[in-house]
Structure formats: structure tokens, C-alpha cells
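We emphasize that the prediction below concerns an isolated chain of 69 residues; any contacts that depend on oligomerization or on bound cofactors are therefore not represented. The input was used exactly as deposited, without trimming of termini.
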Amino acid sequence: MKAQYDFSKAVRGAVMPPRPGTTRVTLALDDEVLDWFQQQVHAAGGGNYQPMTNAALREHVARRGSRPE
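Result of the prediction step, given as a C-alpha cell string:
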């Protein structure tokens, strides 16, 4: 470990900006809900649980009779 680091060119925030049409938010989910989505992704061979969560929310919205634009 170095005695001192140079952070003069450091940038705060997310490493990658969200893709167009998405917004980065902080969302608190129940542990059981998050665990379920993570288990589903693991059972499918790995990946990211967030697209699956987004798809589930879109499906719920569609069932309610209103789709997001």
C-alpha cells in the first residue's frame, strides 16, 4: 500500500452512467424479495438480477392496465 495516493483526477459517482431511457435510483427492497431475484439469476447460470426485477415491475404495470411510456 502506498503512503499517499493522488486523487486529484478522481471522479465521484457511478463508474458507468445509466443507459439512455433509464434512471439510476436507490431502492430499498425487502431482503426476501431481493434474495428471490438473486436466486433466480443464480439458477439461470448467473447474471444481473436488476433486469429481471425491472421485467417483473413492467409485467405488474401491464396487468394493472397502464403501461409506462
